[in-house]
Amino acid sequence: MLILSGCNSRMVLNITLKLQVGTPQSDVAVIEIKASSMPAAKLGDSSKLEVGEWVVAIGNPFGLSHTLTVGVVSAKGRTSIGINDYEDFIQTDAAINPGNSGGPLVNLDAEVVGINTAIFSRSGGYMGVGFAIPINLAREIADQLIDKGEVTRGYLGIVIQPLTADLAKSFGVEQVKGILVSQVSDDSPADMAGLRQGDIIIAYRGEPVTNVGSFRNRVSLTQPGSTEELTILREGKQMTLTVTIGKLTREKLAAQTSSQSAEKLGLTVQTLTPQLAEQFGVKMGEGVVVTEVRPGSIAAMAGIEPGTVIMQVDREPVKNAAEFKRAVEKSSDDKSILLLLRRGNAQQYVVLSW
């Protein structure tokens, strides 16, 4: 029920809560409560949740304590929302508003199946789309925080992107399944395992890979040093690689980040690789390619689609994803942004307003 940031303790109902440790990348923290004879909520199994199942959100919206709202599980495994670095959300239509963050999402067996964390809204209030961190994920992160004081994340050393129908065709793949490897860092675990730029990852640890966000999250929660299997497509042929998972550090994270999410606009872009530049008919450094567009977002309503190349932001050229992010942040106070887009052989200006 609390949002703890930049503090070590908080008094609530005469109980001292001490913030032990947290991980902002996943929006999960562990607090210590020195009290006795306190009832504890039962934790459920979020992997057993089904779309359409009834759930209850409990919280303190707008300072209104002990508020309970009811809805259903709208979707599972939501990623690329732009809220946290690592995302795997439960989506619900149970009303979640400012003040609900940190409250439980409960099933009809009175088991906590999620932690309410965010909403998608243009008004700042409820619009029917809320998100919760699955309790299985929160519990796994909390266990690491308690045992080690930090979350040790797995590392492959690759940059990945969604596999669109056009990209699948370009790489000679009939079915659009898996994710595309657009970059492999030198001497990384992926490089040493033989993974190459242009490979398509279709399974990890024997489980299908369906999208970028869930794959990234699964790798991050894999124990460094463990040996895992990657099933890939290369030149249309399926093969299996064995990779030893490395440990993610801040330096490695910065080195492999060539894609950026612009939450305000509702899209994700990636720095052009040589293959992508050739595919879209532009030169390296002449913009960034849109890899994902959130349904209902400002970008979607403007007709921007995956595969669109953004060449300029506010009449200034952007050469990579990092420059694009800085340009968008610079325009955040103006409530609008001018983009020069390239679709096929045509270029056009588009203004996005919020």
Automatic annotation (TrEMBL):
Entries under CDD domains matching the protein: cpPDZ1_DegP-like
Name of the coding gene: htrA_4
Entries under SUPFAM superfamilies matching the protein: PDZ domain-like, Trypsin-like serine proteases
Coiled coil: none
Keyword Protease: yes
InterPro entries linked: PDZ (IPR001478), PDZ_6 (IPR041489), PDZ_sf (IPR036034), Peptidase_S1_PA (IPR009003), Peptidase_S1C (IPR001940)
GO molecular function, one term: serine-type endopeptidase activity
Source organism per UniProt: Kuenenia stuttgartiensis
Family of the protein in this entry: Belongs to the peptidase S1C family.
Domain PDZ residues, every copy: 145-236, 252-320
Keywords assigned by UniProt, alphabetized: Hydrolase, Protease, Serine protease
Protein name (Swiss-Prot/TrEMBL): PDZ domain-containing protein
One biological process term in Gene Ontology: proteolysis
A Pfam family assignment: Trypsin_2
